[in-house]
Design a protein that fits this description.
By secondary structure, the protein is mainly beta. The protein has 2 domains: 3-100, Elongation Factor Tu (Ef-tu), domain 3 (Beta Barrel); 111-181, SH3 type barrels. Helix content is 14%, strand content 41%. The protein has helices spanning 3-11, 40-43, 83-87, 111-114, 178-181, and strands at 16-25, 30-35, 49-54, 57-69, 72-77, 93-96, 118-121, 126-134, 141-144, 151-154, 160-164, 169-172. The strands form 2 sheets. A 6-stranded antiparallel beta barrel has the order 1-2-5-4-3-6. Strands 10-9-8-7-12-11 form a 6-stranded mixed beta sheet. Strand 8 (126-134) and strand 9 (141-144) form a beta hairpin. The chain starts with a helix and ends with a helix.
């Protein structure tokens, strides 16, 4: 492991998950990735550097090839030329430093930016903290709290009236009964 891989291992938990290696594809060392990004064509483009982690070890790979099949990237990585080498990557996470993220337009947020935000109503009632974000664009929802006190809040402009990521705060204007519906 070189200096870049050592740095990646130290900061791994702070970095952003962009995919997981699902399995091998073919016998030339390619792998199928379950993407965790809205930009797989850019994120896994030939020449991109990926940080691949498994069992506490982080390796850096340069993407040598990409094609998308059924919505999932199939990528070739430099130095991974056999099915055996590719099999060793199965179930690995692929992460990147936050500084490598694609800038988003105003009003659009990365999921990891919303996790950990405190949620309160416009009346000042504390609802909880975002533990996860589910769904895709147009159908997303915030998971606020955990376990039995979990509340599902649609990630929609009429309900989420203020999202202030730097302040780690989301203000919601829930329709009548929403907070009780999910509890």
């Amino acid at each position: 492991m070189g200096p870049a891989a050592d740095e990646a291992a130290r900061k791994w938990e702070e970095w952003v998950l962009v995919g997981r290696v699902a399995r091998t594809h073919g016998n030339r060392g390619e792998v199928i990735v379950d993407p965790h990004t809205d930009f797989p064509e850019r994120r896994f483009a030939p020449g991109a550097v990926l940080h691949v982690g498994r069992f506490g070890q982080v390796e850096l790979f340069r993407v040598r090839s990409l094609r998308i099949h059924r919505g999932r990237p199939i990528i070739g990585l430099a130095g991974v030329d056999t099915i055996d080498a590719a099999e060793r990557l199965a179930a690995s996470e692929i992460r990147i430093p936050p500084g490598d993220l694609t800038p988003l337009p105003d009003g659009i947020f990365y999921r990891h930016d919303l996790v950990g935000c405190a949620v309160e109503t416009v009346a000042g009632l504390q609802v909880g903290v975002v533990s996860a974000v589910e769904g895709g664009e147009g159908e997303g929802r915030l998971i606020v709290g955990k376990g039995r006190s979990e509340v599902l809040v649609p990630l929609a402009a009429p309900i989420c009236v203020t999202i202030d990521v730097p302040a780690r705060r989301i203000v919601i204007d829930p329709p009548a009964g929403l907070l009780d519906l999910n509890r």
